[in-house]
Design goal:
By secondary structure, this protein is mainly α. It is about 70% helix and about 5% strand. It is elongated and about 55 Å long.
Length: about 80
């Protein structure tokens, strides 16, 4: 397999993995215990961070996993930009 075909194959594999993640997270929600565990914090710290606006607020008491993944990605990008500045 040529290098170009290998690169295309690798990109297709990555896109496939991302698509699987999107499908798996669609319609999945986290309760406060799951959200706190995901962030590595206690539920009381989670409540304080939600109140201060540093963590998104739940919708009807739960966090849509797709929105959490998107928020985490935006946090990573912000940290990367701040670190590289």
């Amino acid at each position: 397999m040529t290098a170009d075909l290998q690169a295309i194959y690798t990109q297709l594999q990555q896109m496939h993995q991302l698509l699987q993640t999107v499908v798996a997270t669609h319609n999945r929600h986290l309760d406060r215990h799951e959200m706190a565990q995901r962030l590595g914090i206690s539920t009381s710290t989670l409540a304080r961070r939600v109140q201060s606006g540093t963590v998104p607020a739940p919708v009807n008491g739960r966090w849509p996993l797709a929105a959490v993944v998107e928020w985490e990605a935006s946090q990573t990008q912000t940290q990367t930009r701040t670190h590289n500045a």
